[in-house]
């Protein structure tokens, strides 16, 4: 059995906004602080170098705990496609890959969000343990992104 498995989370959203504005919300630190992770009041650090090979970092402080997310940009094709890595070192050394694709539609744009979630295995896991972990990582990530995309919607449609 391998040391990890991967589950793919794909989500679709429509925004009454241009692809440029949504794309900008993923790269501009002044916008990113308002929706990525949680909200502006709890995001204490937002650093961004929006170029291929550049890094990003957000530290969100909730309930006395800092949650740090980091990554780097793999592809930036403004305003159609963004590929970046996503890692939360306090929870795992694994690195996920996120792809955001934007397409103009009649009343705004449609976003297809895909996260390749790497799930590290613990020693002696059974196939059932792996399946359970994959389901938990998938649903937990989906829940988190659903909340973040509500904030993103406010930013790009406001």
From TrEMBL:
<protein>
    <submittedName>
        <fullName>SRPBCC domain-containing protein</fullName>
    </submittedName>
</protein>
<dbReference type="Pfam" id="PF08327">
    <property type="entry name" value="AHSA1"/>
</dbReference>
<dbReference type="InterPro" id="IPR013538">
    <property type="entry name" value="ASHA1/2-like_C"/>
</dbReference>
<comment type="similarity">
    <text>Belongs to the AHA1 family.</text>
</comment>
<dbReference type="InterPro" id="IPR023393">
    <property type="entry name" value="START-like_dom_sf"/>
</dbReference>
<feature type="domain" description="Activator of Hsp90 ATPase homologue 1/2-like C-terminal">
    <location>
        <begin position="18"/>
        <end position="157"/>
    </location>
</feature>
């Amino acid at each position: 059995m391998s040391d990890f498995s991967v589950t793919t989370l794909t989500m679709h959203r429509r925004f009454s906004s241009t692809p440029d504005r949504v794309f900008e919300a993923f790269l501009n630190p002044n916008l990113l602080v308002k929706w990525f992770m949680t909200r502006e009041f709890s995001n204490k650090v937002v650093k961004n170098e929006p170029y291929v090979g550049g890094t990003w970092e957000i530290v969100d402080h909730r309930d006395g705990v800092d949650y740090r997310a980091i990554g780097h940009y793999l592809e930036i094709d403004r305003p159609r496609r963004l590929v970046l890595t996503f890692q939360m070192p306090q929870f795992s050394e694994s690195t996920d890959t996120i792809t955001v694709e934007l397409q103009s539609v009649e009343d705004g744009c449609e976003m297809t969000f895909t996260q390749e979630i790497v799930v590290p295995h613990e020693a002696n896991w059974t196939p059932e343990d792996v399946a359970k972990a994959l389901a938990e990582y998938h649903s937990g990530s989906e829940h988190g992104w659903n909340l973040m995309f509500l904030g993103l919607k406010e930013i790009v449609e406001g």
